[in-house]
């Protein structure tokens, strides 16, 4: 579930900003996909960008463990102070992966809320498609 409701705004401002997604008690999402893009710097010894087993472990620790089947606003401490929009979810995932992956390996994170709503995050740069 995500909140789409900011405590710093009035009910009217929240409704205007978040529209039908506004609900002080949250609403649910099943995110379609979370994509990671790593630069194509192939290790000459292994022939890989990175070991896929390691990458799966990093994704499990950074994404699945803190987020899967969770109410973002109640179960994830980060979202107690941050509105749980798809944009902020992308930032959360980026920050978690940056702590685990080798420096400079992560290029971008894409979060697909629906087929039409995709957020791309590249560090400081956020783009909504």
UniProtKB/TrEMBL annotation:
Its cofactor is Zn(2+). InterPro entries: 6-PTP_synth/QueD, 6-PTP_synth/QueD_sf, PTPS_Cys_AS, PTPS_His_AS. GO terms for molecular function: 6-pyruvoyltetrahydropterin synthase activity; metal ion binding. Keywords: Lyase, Metal-binding, Tetrahydrobiopterin biosynthesis, Zinc. Pathway: Cofactor biosynthesis; tetrahydrobiopterin biosynthesis; tetrahydrobiopterin from 7,8-dihydroneopterin triphosphate: step 1/3. GO terms for cellular component: mitochondrion. It is an enzyme of class 4 (lyase). Its EC number is 4.2.3.12. Pfam families: PTPS (PF01242). GO terms for biological process: tetrahydrobiopterin biosynthetic process. Involved in the biosynthesis of tetrahydrobiopterin, an essential cofactor of aromatic amino acid hydroxylases. Catalyzes the transformation of 7,8-dihydroneopterin triphosphate into 6-pyruvoyl tetrahydropterin. Belongs to the PTPS family. This is 6-pyruvoyl tetrahydrobiopterin synthase. It comes from Tychaedon coryphoeus.
